[in-house]
Q: What sequence folds into this?
């Protein structure tokens, strides 16, 4: 399942932006995330640039960061 780039109220959502914001909030680097998820650093970099991601990936990222998927994706909501 891919999480689409719209929220339930019609706002735009960006999962890459959400992941980048969460990493800053939690004080975690992309390299640390890549190591924890068993991904290459370039793969995590690309994940942080995408506007959507699979639910499985968001679950892994949010679990590592100690937050729910809902909390994570809400960080990427904006009014564009």
A:
């Amino acid at each position: 399942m891919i999480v689409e780039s719209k929220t339930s109220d019609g706002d735009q959502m960006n999962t890459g932006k959400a992941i980048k914001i969460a990493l800053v909030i939690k004080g975690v680097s992309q390299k640390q995330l890549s190591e924890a998820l068993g991904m290459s650093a370039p793969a995590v970099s690309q994940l942080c640039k995408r506007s959507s991601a699979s639910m499985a990936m968001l679950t892994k990222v949010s679990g590592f960061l100690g937050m729910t998927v809902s909390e994570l994706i809400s960080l990427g909501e904006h009014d564009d």
Observations:
- The chain has five helices and four strands.
- The chain has a mean pLDDT of 86.
